[in-house]
Amino acid sequence: RQGSHTFHTPQHTCHTPMGWEWRCFFTPVVDFSIWKSLSLSPQSSVTRSDTYLRTTPSVGLKLRGGNGLELKVLKKRGKLSSNFEKWKKHQIPLSIHDPSFIDQLTASLPDQSELKEAADVLRKFHNISDSFVLVHKTVTRATMSESIRVEQTNCRFEIPEKSVVELVSVACDGSDEDSLKGSIDVIVSALKNAGVSYTVMGYPEALVSVLEQHSTTNTLNSSGTVTTPSNVPSSTPTTVPIVKSESDPIPSDDPISKLLSLGQTIRQLKAEKADKKVIGDHVKQLTDLKQKHEEDVWNAIQKLENEWNDRLLNVWGNDENHPEAVEFKTRFQSIENLLPPATLKAKREEVKRKVRELELERLAAFDRFAFTEGMLCQRKIHHLLDHNSGKDEEFCYYRRLNPRNSFQNAQQVWLTEKMDGTTVQATNKGIFKRFDIHSKATDGNVNWHELPEEQRYRLERLNLEDPQHHLIGAALSRYQKVFENLPDDLCVYFEAIGERIGSRFAHLPEFYDISVFDFSRNGKFCPFEETILLCKEYNLPIVAHQRVLLDYDAVISFLSGNPKYTAINADLEGYVVRSIDSADAAKIRVADVPVI
């Protein structure tokens, strides 16, 4: 080896005893998850990359996620089953940046009998080569009982110059063999029922198995760069192309896999402080591949976005912190990072533009007047009190009943609260709203107050997917199915109310609802008592109401006290007086009181 290195030998290692463990490995099976098979929800999820040194099935050594060396030694096998293993971990504060660290590591091991085999193994493999394999892991865990923990790990073994091998590991650990056995029986049954062919072994044995099937010897040269001694001089670093094995579920020509693998190789080289020229060559190769496969990456991003939206709604219950959602997001972001931010933003803007164009075309094709012919429009409700014909400051009400209505003082009536919202009506054919035909600004000479409803208003069917109607959509969304199932002869009339519909509810965040005040059947308005019965039948909210003897002086007095709605903490707009025997109605508002 070339170069000189400064190395500080640690004074001690930290060891951690472990419980009993059972672990198996198998190739990925489509749609299989141990959590789904056991009807469990993972309670934690972590993604990391560990660098393993090839050793033997009973000794493991790895750089754990870049956070220090971990030596793992098999202590004993179980009495109930030889597949139950008890390991002991040793945390060793060394760095692999120095190629001579194996010498220093074996020299620093304490002279304990339990570590003698480990030291011999490390010296043996050190004399052959410094053999390393990068393993990317996504680990999810959950507890089956108080003392039993289950783990599923998706592993990606990167073997430079040869292949990338993907395996899934399922493990179970506990404090004693008896409790572990019962849980293992459940897991084994789940694996067999899913048709999973598995092999029971620990990580060190799995690593040995993978390397034997994809035989290669890789070393760290003096600059910390991965090389192949059989055909590359130790002083000459080589680029490490990542390809897929025939058994890998991802095709060998998959560009996303190549890009991700090359990016991980670059990060590993940087972590190992490899030669700058080697890192530069890798970066150039990655840049060229990104340009070549820009559309492939963008297509993958769009596919993952659709998958994310579907799973978030239908699988994870809109919980972005669900362990599977966190894992998915991490993988998604790694693919997003393959495109420059400016390119990603431009492509997303282009998609938004196309979506807007399609939306406008779809909205334009919506027939606003479908099913409106012959439909009874919500009538104009006259004022309860008589008034003059003056305008603005000359206008006033009189303390007497309006002769245009049929109401008499002391007559039995329904007194219903007047809601501050927007009037909407619905049938099983759609949602409809009335609009003024005449405008005060352009039709000032038209006495439109005196016009019948059919000449004053027009009805339009609302497209609730149109953004301009989204507040009405929010108010009635929970009643859509009810409206769709109404009989053909019924039409329901209601006020859509909410935080941004009518100023009286602006202080109620996220409040949206409806309040029914009328029904019509076969083109005729129903008496209010029938409206009450229909609201009960269809479970629709109805305006607050009471049956009273009409006393307009008492009504005026009550409204002058700035009352609140019965069921909503908001200022009351006023009342609508409704006949007991007919559909006649008249209104009086809080705002009318000062001009009486």
What does this protein look like?
- The protein has about 600 residues and is α+β, with helices and mostly antiparallel strands.
- The protein contains 15 helices and 24 strands.
- The chain has helices at about 35-40, 100-110, 115-130, 175-195, 205-215, 255-270, 275-290, 295-315, 325-335, 340-365, 455, 470-475, 480-485, 530-540, 550-560; strands spanning about 15-25, 45-55, 60-65, 70-75, 85-90, 130-145, 150-160, 165-175, 200, 220, 225, 380-385, 385, 395-400, 410-420, 420-425, 430-435, 455-460, 490-500, 510-520, 525, 545-550, 575-580, 585-590.
- An eight-stranded antiparallel beta barrel has the order 1-5-4-3-2-6-7-8, surrounded by four helices. A six-stranded antiparallel beta sheet has the order 18-17-16-19-20-21.
- Helix 2 (about 100-110) packs antiparallel against helix 3 (about 115-130), helix 6 (about 255-270) packs antiparallel against helix 7 (about 275-290) and helix 8 (about 295-315) runs antiparallel to helix 9.
- The longest helix has 25 residues, at about 340-365.
- The radius of gyration is 38 Å and the shape is elongated.
- The chain starts with 13 loop residues before the first strand and ends in a 7-residue tail after the last strand.
- Mean pLDDT is about 80; it is low at about 1-10 and about 215-250.
